Every structure is written in C-alpha cells, then in structure tokens.
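Researcher: Quick test of sequence recovery. Tokens follow.
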C-alpha cells in the first residue's frame, strides 16, 4: 500500500510538471514571462512589447496564470500581470542554460550579432556585491528607460544601449564598468560591452540580469 501511495504521488508530480512544460511550450509565453519578470505590466503594454495582439496576449497570459506562473491584480481600470511566487526566474535561467548546452551555436549567433569573436569575460553576482561594497565599479543598466524605472540595481546609471555611443561622456569611467540588462544572454549588455571595449573602456558583463538579482532578494531601487 505504501509503495502504491508513493507511485501515485510521483505520478501526480510528473503530471504537474508535464502541464507546466506544455504551458511553456510557446515562444510567445516565454517572451511574456521575460517581460513580466522585469516588473508588473498591463496586457496592453505587454502586447506592445511582444508585437502580439491584445487578444492573443491575454490568451497566453491566461494559460500562464492557470499554471501559476503569473498573477493578475487590478490597478484602477487596468489589469496588471506579475510573476507568481516561486523560483520562476530560476526556471527561465535553467531553460536558457539547457538551450545553450544543447545548441552551442546560440553563443555564435550572439557573437555574430555584435561582430565580436572573443568570449566576453563576466563578473559573478558575489564578486559584484563585494566590488559594490568598496565602490570600485560603475554599474551600467542598458535596458530601456521604462524597465529601469520599474526596478534596477542600486546606484546603477541608465543609458539605453542604442544611446550609448552618443552619451559616452555621461558615463563615469574612473572605475571598471559593469554592464547588465535582462539576463546572462541578453544581447543589449553584450552589445554594450563590445562597444565600450572598442572605445578602450574597461568593461565586464554581469553574469546575471536584473530579474535574477531581484529573485535573489537583493536590494533594488525604483524610479528614473
């Protein structure tokens, strides 16, 4: 009897995992999760960010909600969607790592997109925390202003990557620059690091992005 109970419990768990996998089996839903991981957003704004129709966005969000991956709350006349509780950012990161392991050409695609051949050296979250304590780095957030205002690493400077070359004079470079964006393979920060290095500025890439930092319970700031 005990063995049967164990097998039933295991089957129930695997059934739940299979349901989550089915829900995530859509690039549109993964894209929505990545945007929601930056902070709560309305259906209309998520539709703009993903290029989907409002109706299609709403449908995908309902699938994510049924699988307890996102939660909805009312803000006046708007419905905002945010990540549900649990290690969802870690799940997204694990999927990314698995994809990178299975398809090594992903790194080549990223490298080609910024015309670089060298592997970019990164900095770990623990090392960054230590460097922040002695104020020996300049934090550069290269995400769009909207994402920066929702939340960012303490003391970070926001220069969207498309403005970086024109605003180099606004970037303090007396210390090493640490660039970050949405995650370890976000093309925005890879592009920024490559650009700054070509300009002779000491720059490294944060091995994690803002969602990972926030999920770790570390301090964040809001506002522009």
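Model:
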């Amino acid at each position: 009897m005990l063995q049967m109970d164990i097998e039933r419990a295991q089957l129930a768990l695997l059934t739940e995992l299979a349901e989550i996998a089915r829900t995530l089996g859509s690039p549109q839903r993964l894209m929505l999760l990545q945007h929601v991981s930056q902070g709560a957003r309305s259906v209309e704004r998520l539709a703009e960010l993903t290029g989907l129709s409002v109706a299609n966005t709403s449908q995908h969000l309902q699938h994510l909600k049924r699988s307890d991956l996102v939660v909805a709350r009312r803000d006046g006349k708007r419905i905002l969607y945010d990540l549900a509780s649990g290690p969802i950012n870690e799940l997204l990161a694990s999927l990314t790592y698995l994809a990178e392991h299975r398809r090594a050409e992903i790194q080549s695609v990223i490298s080609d997109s910024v015309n670089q051949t060298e592997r970019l050296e990164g900095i770990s979250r623990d090392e960054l925390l230590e460097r922040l304590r002695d104020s020996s780095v300049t934090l550069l957030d290269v995400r769009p202003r909207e994402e920066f205002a929702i939340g960012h690493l303490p003391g970070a400077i926001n220069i969207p990557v498309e403005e970086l070359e024109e605003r180099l004079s606004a970037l303090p470079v007396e210390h090493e620059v640490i660039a970050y964006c949405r995650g370890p393979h976000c093309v925005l920060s890879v592009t920024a690091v490559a650009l700054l290095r070509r300009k002779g500025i000491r720059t490294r890439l944060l091995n994690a992005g803002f969602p990972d930092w926030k999920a770790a319970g570390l301090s964040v700031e809001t506002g522009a």
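Residues 113-118 have pLDDT under 50 and may be disordered.
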